[in-house]
Description:
Elements: H1 2-27, H2 30-39, H3 42-60, H4 62-70, H5 76-93, H6 96-109, H7 114-142, H8 155-178, E1 183-186, E2 189-192, H9 196-220, H10 227-244, H11 252-261, H12 267-303, H13 306-314
Antiparallel strand pairs: 1-2
Helix pairs in contact: 1-11, 2-12, 3-5, 3-9, 3-12, 4-5, 4-7, 5-6, 5-12, 6-7, 7-8, 7-9, 7-10, 8-9, 9-10, 10-11, 11-12
Amino acid sequence: MRADAKRWLTGAFFVVVAVVFANFARTVDWGAVRDVLKAYPLRTIGAAGGLAALSHLVYSSFDLIGRHEVGHRLSISRSCAITFVSYAFNLNLGSLVGGFATRYRLYTHEGVPVDAVTRILVLSLLTNWLGYAFLGGMVLAISAPVVAAEWALDAAPLRAIGVMMVVVALAYIAACARWEDRTFRIRTQSLKLPSARVALWQLAISALNWGVIASVIYVLMSRQVAYATVLSVLLVAAVAGVITHVPAGLGVLEAVFATALSGVLGQAEIIAALLAYRAVYYLAPLAVATMLFAALEARAGGSRGPRATSRAKREAVDDDGSMQRKTRQAPGHPIR
C-alpha cells in the first residue's frame, strides 16, 4: 500500500513539475536566450568550467572515506577515477546506472568484494546528504533566501526547518562519536558508523562540494542573484530531482529555478545560465568520464582473471560487511 502511494505521489509530483516547466517554456523568448548565451564573456565560461572541475574533483574524493574505512588496496588515484566516472554517469543517466551499477562494476573488476563496495557506496551517500543537510540548514537558519513572491514564506518556519536540518547533521556526528564502529541493521542493510573525525571529514567535503556547485550557477547568472538564494534554490531542485527520478533532473532543475527566481531575474538569463551550467557541469564531465570508463574497462579486461581472483581471495570480508585491514596501521591512520 505504501509503495502504491509513493508511486502515485511521485507521478503526481512529476506531472506538476512537467506542467510548470511546459507553461514556462511557452513564455520563454528563445531568441533572447540565444543572445544571452552568445554574449557570455569567455572569462565567465572559464570561471564556471573551473568551478565545475573543482566540484567534480571534490566529489571524487568522497570514496576515499570508504577506502579509509574499508581498507581496500586500490590507489587513491584509481579510487578517485572510479568515483568521478560514477558521479558523471549518475548526473546524466540516473543513480541506478551511475551511482550504483558503475561503481559495482568498476570496483569488483578491481577485485574489491561486493560487500565492501556496498559500504563504500553507503558512506558516499551519507557524505553527500550530510553536507546537504548542514549547509542547507545553515542557509535557512541564518538568512531566508529572497525568491519570487509566490514562493515567499515566513522567516520563522524557514529558520525552524533550517535548525532541524543542522541538528540532524550534528546528531550524526554525535552518534559517530558515541557509537564508533558499532553496526546498526536497517532492514536487510547494515551500517557501521565511522569515527567522529571521519564524520567531520564527510561534512566538510560535502558542504564544500554543494557550495562550489552553487558557485557555478551563481557565476553563470553574472552574480545578479544573491549567492545564498542560488544555493537554497539549488538544494530544493536537488531534492526535487531525487523525488522524480528523472535522469539529469531534466526539466526539474529548470522548473524549480524558473519558478523561484521569476521576478528576481529575467527568464532569458535564467534559462541561459542553466543551459550553460548543464554544458559545463553535466555534458563536459560526461565526455571525459566516458573515455575514462573505457580506459578502466580496458585495463580491467587485461588484468582480470587469476590476478583479480587472487586479490579478491586475499581481501577477506567481516560478517558486518567491513573488510579486514591487511596492514598493521593503527585505527584512524591517515590515508597514504
